[in-house]
Amino acid sequence: MEAPAAPQAGGAIHRDSLGHKLEELELQVQVAHEVNAHLNSEVERLTARVDTLEQEKAAFERHIKLLAKKLAAARAQLPDAAQAAAQAQEQADTEEADEEAAAQMLQSDAFAADGPSASTDDQAWLQDAAWLRFQAAGRRAGWLVDPQEVILGEVIGRGTFGVVHSATWRGGCVAVKRVQPRSRDQATTFVREVEALAQLRHPHCMQLYAACVHPPNDFWLICELLSGGTLAAWLYGGAGARRLPHRSLSERLKMALDVARGMQALEEHTPQILHRDLKPSNVFIDSTGTAKIADFGLARILSPAAMVSLTGETGSYLWMSPEVIRHEPYDARSDCWSFGVVLVELLTQEKPYSQLYQTPVQVAIQVADGSLHPQAPPDCHPIVADLLLAIFSPDPLERPSFGIIVARLEAALSDVRKQAAVAQSESLLGRWSKGWARA
């Protein structure tokens, strides 16, 4: 009666062998998934690198076409050409050179490098050829106007280098940022802001209408009047505020989405435009409640020449990316990090790293070594939480583009608004039910 025991033991051994093989297969599948995820990450990184190289290639191709056009014009100026044709060609060349000077001035010897210069306060730089060409190109393009056309109103803001007035220009209400550059550095800041704003036309970027260059005192930016104040004041309250303004999550996400859309315009501009100082005090709100990117004094247009002359530690420490702090090469993904800091501010309604009680320099040291970045709040929407993880990646190439950021924020905002609508309906139904029960 004990004979059947052997087959049972054999069956148990067989089952153990099958279980062991299944475990091996599961382990192999897991390893395959991990390898696949790593390969996908590498593909994304290499794709981003290829996109960057393609943009650089396109910039060089445009430069080559411009040189070819100049060469053709020079060959056309033969000694036996008609005098009238020669004069017309000379005028065209002059205009083209002025336009090129305005577009490339920040990459010229006079205005290329970031950082301090040896300029003094004697304003001799006002006679530089690059500066004079910039003015000539501005007059020809129509955005350089006479200050006498502008009627200044009251001061509505003050900054490091000047003041902002409400004003009237050609019958319309505008804002005038009035600066008094006393050196080449300050003039370069003014020029860069003009150069960047003159190329941007977007609902979420402050619009430049004109500029005034009238040495020694009148250097003005004539822009749209954004009467809603800064995003910083909207989020934290004005000077002397004792309590935070009440802003719903959907309102704060909507502001984040506005800022992301403005930054997408900079990122997708050809060539790209770096803001380099994105923070709530540099975002303004118009009369309809729309947020717009402003203050382009540190902006750079990413031409091939500019890409090799970008300096580190440019901007504001609390919003600065690790690679900028470390003086490493950087691109638009550094603005992505700055946006992430602003996004956390909007989610928490707290200033960056305020719980650490450290100076901005102390914070920057920890950000640079990779041990610190802003943290999403515990109740953060899952889409936004995942987005922040990607934004604060130590590898800039792994950070999302602003196009992706916009899409994710749109989805999160839509979900938050739906949840708020359901909660409001339930609350109204509850109050109605209680009133009916009492009746």
Brief account:
Helix content is 52%, strand content 11%.
Q: What report would you give on this structure?
A:
The protein is of the alpha+beta class and 439 residues long. Among the domains are: 124-224, Phosphorylase Kinase, domain 1, CATH 3.30.200; 231-421, Transferase(Phosphotransferase) domain 1 (Transferase(Phosphotransferase), domain 1), CATH 1.10.510.10. The protein has helices at 5-76, 83-104, 129-141, 184-199, 231-236, 249-267, 304-307, 322-325, 332-348, 360-368, 382-391, 402-438, and strands at 150-158, 162-169, 172-179, 208-214, 218-224, 273-274, 283-285, 291-293, 300-301. The protein has a 5-stranded antiparallel sheet with strand order 1-2-3-5-4, covered by helices on one side. A two-stranded antiparallel ribbon has the order 6-9. It has a two-stranded antiparallel ribbon with strand order 7-8. Helix 2 crosses helix 3 (129-141). The longest helix is centred in the N-terminal third of the chain and has 72 residues, at 5-76. The chain is globular. It starts with a helix and ends with a helix. InterPro entries: Kinase-like_dom_sf (IPR011009), Prot_kinase_dom (IPR000719), Protein_kinase_ATP_BS (IPR017441), Ser-Thr/Tyr_kinase_cat_dom (IPR001245), Ser/Thr_kinase_AS (IPR008271), Ser/Thr_Kinases-Pseudokinases (IPR051681). It comes from Chlorella vulgaris. Keywords: ATP-binding, Coiled coil, Kinase, Nucleotide-binding, Serine/threonine-protein kinase, Transferase.
